[in-house]
Amino acid sequence: QVQLVESGGGSVQPGGSLRLSCAFSGNINVINDMGWYRQAPGKQRELVAAISSDGRPNYADSVKGRFTISRDNAKSTVTLQMNSLKPEDTAVYYCYAPRVFSDYVYWGQGTQVTVSS
Fold first, then answer.
1. Measured between alpha carbons, how far is 77 from 49 in angstroms, rounded to an integer?
2. The predicted structure's pLDDT at residue 75
3. How far does CA 92 lie from the centroid of its chain?
């Protein structure tokens, strides 16, 4: 059974840093891209960053230069390093992985990130 298990998150002051990790368990061959979405209260879920199986990253304009996504295929993990955090980064962050040749998407349970002074 495929699962995405997230860790990290928490509360930090503006300008601080946090690190999110997501571990994929199951048949790794059913996915290619992995990444992170976030959803703030009252807003739609939005893509934050994604990375392909060969390491090509893609970022939302709002996080470029501040966030870095990386991937360890041997460990089936994806990590999001978040620096220079802003209050508008406050949201629940979800790890995701689309299933190949399918419209199905695997999701993690979500982890809260709060940026506040």
1. 14
2. 85
3. 10
